[in-house]
């Protein structure tokens, strides 16, 4: 079983910070990033198109960290498309945004976000957040599978 965190964000500095935090805390996850929602949807569609046998043998559990404010396809539209697509609607999506506006949080949950996390401004806090996200969304699956 493999775990992969996919970050969708148009800010390369935010991507580097998350990648650095994951590396520093040593979580057993792969990390991918895309600068737009369109590229995320293309990637997920290509992963879903593998044969069923390949999918079972090489199963990857994905978690998406999705920024709201991006050019072209923003996070809200990307989330909406993910939730409308039958094969993507169970994918855990954590909105990871610099916005702490109540309207953004509320709208994200209404659209099907699994969680909403405010981006911290320091690496130590980011490490704590990434550790919590991993243990809540990915690690617990492994515990249940081992029973």
What does this structure look like?
This protein is an alpha/beta fold. It has one domain (2-145): Response regulator (Rossmann fold), CATH 3.40.50. Helix content is 50%, strand content 19%. The protein has helices spanning 12-25, 37-48, 52-57, 75-84, 102-110, 123-145; strands spanning 2-8, 30-34, 60-66, 93-97, 115-118. Strands 2-1-3-4-5 form a 5-stranded parallel β-sheet, with helices on both faces. β4 (93-97), α5 (102-110) and β5 (115-118) form a beta-alpha-beta unit. α2 packs parallel to α4 (75-84). It is globular. It starts with a strand and ends with a helix. 26% of the residues are buried.
Quick tags:
about 150 residues, alpha/beta, Rossmann fold, 5 strands, globular, disordered C terminus, Sig_transdc_resp-reg_receiver, CheY-like_superfamily, TCS_response_regulator, phosphoprotein, Response regulator rcp1
Count of DSSP-assigned helices? 6
The main sheet comes to:
5 strands, parallel
CATH architecture level-2 label: 3-Layer(aba) Sandwich
Calculate Rg over CA atoms: 15 Å
Poorly predicted sequence stretches spanning 5 or more consecutive residues? 142-147
How are the SSEs ordered, and which strands pair?
Layout: E1 2-8, H1 12-25, E2 30-34, H2 37-48, H3 52-57, E3 60-66, H4 75-84, E4 93-97, H5 102-110, E5 115-118, H6 123-145
Parallel strand pairs: 1-2, 1-3, 3-4, 4-5
Helix pairs in contact: 1-6, 2-4
């Amino acid at each position: 079983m493999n775990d992969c965190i996919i970050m969708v964000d148009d800010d390369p500095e935010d991507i580097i910070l998350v990648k650095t935090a994951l590396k520093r805390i040593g979580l057993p996850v792969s990390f991918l990033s895309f600068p737009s929602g369109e590229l995320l949807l293309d990637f997920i569609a290509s992963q879903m198109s593998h044969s069923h046998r390949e999918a079972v043998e090489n199963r990857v559990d994905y978690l998406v960290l999705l920024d709201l404010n991006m050019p072209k396809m923003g996070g809200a539209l990307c989330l909406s498309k993910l939730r409308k697509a039958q094969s993507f609607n169970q994918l855990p999506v954590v909105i990871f945004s610099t916005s702490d506006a109540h309207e953004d949080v509320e709208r994200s949950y209404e659209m099907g976000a699994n969680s909403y996390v405010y981006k911290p401004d320091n690496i130590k806090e980011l490490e704590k957040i990434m550790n919590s996200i991993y243990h809540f969304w990915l690690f617990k699956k492994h515990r249940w599978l081992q029973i």
